[in-house]
Specification:
This protein is an alpha+beta fold. It has 9 helices and 27 strands. It starts with a helix and ends with a helix.
Length: 417
């Protein structure tokens, strides 16, 4: 009976109950209890019951919190210590996130480049040592973070990816050399990935251990690589509407429900038309058109920013004319305007309105380009930071140093002095 009662509480409360006694701690940390909790909270995939944030760089554009699963008082991105996001501690800053974990880079030491991977909700952090100098030379360029999850969405391991000095993205030799730090082994290894295409200005999206390169020297193509695989080849995926260069289209690449999603909007006289494709998880890398719907919104351009990370039927748009967020329910084909203090059932919503206006207007502002076609086929991607479905500790690499947020900040302060 105690187990059934505990499993119905929010995770933030359950985490505190682990310290009541050894019996409760053992019960809560068991696989049975975790599966019971997840089964009772399986509706946490709905759009109004998941805590997540959408970031542009280190800046939070919008955040949702207050869901029953965690009962967090703030959005996930706000739990990352402000110094990490605002460059207040030397050269330490937020870099990437995957599976609910966050990657923090510390470049305050000119001789080394340390990193920290952690769970901002649990305030747990693992210190990642710099690679051996014989592997890196002078390069300290960090590329991203990937994770491996189990069937319940619990993080089993993570890998930090860095670019080796011999293969900066602007190289002409079509070899992409990377360095990988694995939480399973606690050591750095090198890997060379072959690319038949010339890779230039890179931004990325990660999902299930795979990083998708969203901006290449070849327009309308994604490059992808699973960093948990033994493959030494890039996959290349053609975007579903390429080469449609309609200058009025707004496009974004995002993730939802465990898939890579491609969203496009077109403002017409009486409605905004949404088309959404899903990249199938198969060997063919084919796209499936999931939605093609029209919303009779106020006249104006609406740019797609993201889909709900778990609810494949919810998409979020930005009004370029009225400067507000819109949440669209694709199944019901209705929408609502989100505000700074809007309530969505048990959900709270935070929007940094001045930041959104400043950043998003700049992103979709037309600029001069040598190639008019390339300019009209621009695809953007934003970083989604989600709260883990379970309070599992951050995977600890062998001999790695574990710390909480308070001790991490003190360490960084002392290093700066």
């Amino acid at each position: 009976m105690q187990t059934e009662i505990l499993a119905r509480l929010p995770l933030r409360t359950i985490a505190r109950f682990k310290s009541v006694c050894k019996t409760w701690k053992s019960t809560i940390e068991s696989a049975y209890f975790r599966r019971l909790f997840l089964s009772l909270h399986q509706n946490s995939s709905s759009s109004s019951s998941s805590s997540w944030s959408l970031l542009y760089g280190e800046e939070e554009l919008i955040g949702f919190y207050g869901c029953k699963t965690w009962d967090l008082p703030k959005s996930p991105a706000s739990l990352i210590p402000p110094p990490f996001k605002r460059y207040h501690i030397g050269d330490c800053y937020y870099w990437d996130s995957s599976g609910g974990l966050v990657l923090i880079i510390d470049e305050s030491d000119n001789a080394y480049c340390y990193a920290y991977v952690g769970n901002p909700v649990l305030q747990q952090w693992v210190k990642i040592p710099p690679p051996p100098t014989h592997l890196t030379g002078d390069s300290r360029y960090v590329f991203g973070l990937v994770t491996r999850l189990d069937e319940d969405g619990v993080v089993l391991s993570f890998k930090m990816v860095r670019i080796a000095p011999s293969s900066h993205p602007t190289t002409n030799d079509y070899l992409f050399s990377v360095l990988l730090y694995s939480s399973d082994t606690g050591v750095w290894t090198s890997k060379v990935i072959l690319s038949p295409k010339y890779i230039t200005n890179i931004y990325n999206l990660n999902l299930n251990g795979t990083i998708y390169f969203g901006c290449l020297g070849v327009t309308g193509v994604l490059a992808a690589h699973d960093f948990y695989s033994k493959s030494d080849q890039f996959r290349f995926v053609k975007l579903p509407d390429y080469p449609d260069y309609n200058k009025d289209y707004k496009r974004t690449l995002t993730t939802s429900g465990g898939f890579v999603m491609y969203v496009r909007t077109l403002a017409k006289k009486e409605e905004t038309v949404l088309k959404i494709w899903r990249l199938n998880n198969d060997d063919d890398d084919t796209w499936h058109l999931l939605w093609e719907v029209g919303f009779p919104m106020i006249i104006g351009n609406y740019a797609p920013l993201a889909m709900h990370p778990f609810d494949i039927g919810t998409v979020y748009l930005w009004s370029q004319r009225d400067h507000h967020w819109v949440s669209c329910n694709l199944e019901k084909q209705d929408y609502k305007i989100l505000g700074d203090s809007s309530n969505d059932g048990h959900q709270e919503c935070f929007i940094d309105q001045p930041l959104c206006k400043k950043r998003l207007d700049h992103i979709w502002y037309r600029r001069s380009s040598d190639s008019e076609e390339d300019l009209n086929f621009t695809v953007y991607s934003f970083c989604t930071l989600v709260v883990p479905r379970w309070m599992e500790s951050v995977p600890r690499p062998p001999q790695a140093e574990m710390m909480n947020t308070t001790s991490l900040l003190l360490t960084l302060d002392n290093d700066e002095e």
